[in-house]
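cache lookup: miss for this entity combination. No prior model stored, computing from scratch. Input as submitted by user K.M.:
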Amino acid sequence: MRKKIILERVTIEEVAAEGKTLAHVNDRVVFIKGGAPGDVVDILVTNKRKSYFEGVPLSYHSLSPDRIEPFCAHFDTCGGCKWQHLPYKMQLEFKQKQVIDNFERLGKFDFPTPEAIMASAEEKFYRNKLEYTFSDSRWLTKEEIASDKTFDKNALGFHIPGRFDKILDIEKCYLQPEPTNEIRNWVRQYALENKISFFNLRKQFGYLRNLIIRTTTTEQTMVILQVTENRPEIMEPLLTELNKSVAITSLNYVVNNKGNDTFNDLEVINFAGKPYIEETMAIEGSETLLTFRIGPKSFYQTNSKQAEHLYQKVKSLAQIKNDEIVYDLYTGTGTIANYVAHLAKKVVGLEYVPEAIEDAKVNSEINNIDNTDFVAGDMKDLLTEHFIAQHDQPDIIITDPPRAGMHPAVVEILNIVKANRIVYVSCNPATQARDIALLSELYKVETFQPVDMFPHTHHVENIVLLKLK
Ligand SMILES: C[S@@+](CC[C@H](N)C(=O)[O-])C[C@H]1O[C@@H](n2cnc3c(N)ncnc32)[C@H](O)[C@@H]1O
């Protein structure tokens, strides 16, 4: 057996990437899963690399004076809100630093001092979407194992970090407003009482697979239940009873027997209510209240209230004039495009998911916006010189790609198009820095603005204004 390495009485210094913490031991960096800056801990080394170690706290000698009491009973086991033990102000400082670190490490371009990070007004119940997983392999905490209670082996909740097959049964989650806890607990109880099988993630069998709940600030609720087989004798009574018990605007299900939970390529069956929900957003400095229709497959910024501030900032950085053409890349349901349309001559929105593009068109229609154009396709194939010739040369490009950032072919075409300004919104400063480096010969980073969309997590959003040199 390999000898365990334990580092004794180490003082944790700061927060590092991916929500880990960091310390130095004999000039070697140690990344630690958990802990807080200021804690003095013994660390069990779990991974030895040439230039750094990775480890977990084994025992605590003293706790950081900065620590605060986490508010959730599932904290430390659930991977969801890893930073509940750190004051929000400190979380914001770490996020700001994370963006700068990424830009310094991966950017290799000049950039100004960032604006102070925009805090989220809501620190709890800020999410509008959660995805719960059913499992017949419930994760039991050390305390649960040590207790003499017996527990049902079925669970409905969140994945244990690093364990694809084990699910933590969630009683109350503080991320999304009600009725999220009410619906999840109702469905679990009904399934247990009626002996409906929960999915086995390892062997891929069982009926109930996944439950998605979306909410809006207008108090509308969408439910999407994923099951593995079309069995109306189970599904119909379940959804009928659920619909009677909780007010649901859009109740849907998907039969998914694939190897993963994504359902963009599957039919979503609307069981009751509307096939969409509607969110509203005020346009800053105007009387207009936009309505956004969101279908089951469409992306919508997960923190709705902070999304409003995000879009205000995008709008103010873009400085759109009424004779300018704007492209909104990765437009989702056309939210940014419709938000800025009143300022521009025309906005062209591009997006991969055809259903989201259909929603984007409807969103223009229901808001009486007639200067938008939405096209569906994979960005790397869609955004070509031919497309630009057909849809007018953009003066301003707003881009908001997924975590992976932009495909190199997309960055290449941006370098050919040479729009005057690019506003780059990103939920991953590492891929954003990589992409900006590829644009930096032609573009100068004028401003950058970190935004916190996800309190108590290490995730940070960042908006960068690039100007053609
Ligand atoms: C971070 S979201 C941004 C959505 C939108 N800008 C908003 O604020 O709601 C990224 C969007 O990119 C889309 N997307 C992902 N990969 C894509 C690709 N290869 N081509 C086009 N769109 C893609 C996703 O479907 C998603 O709607």
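stored under new cache key. The longest helix spans residues 88-107.
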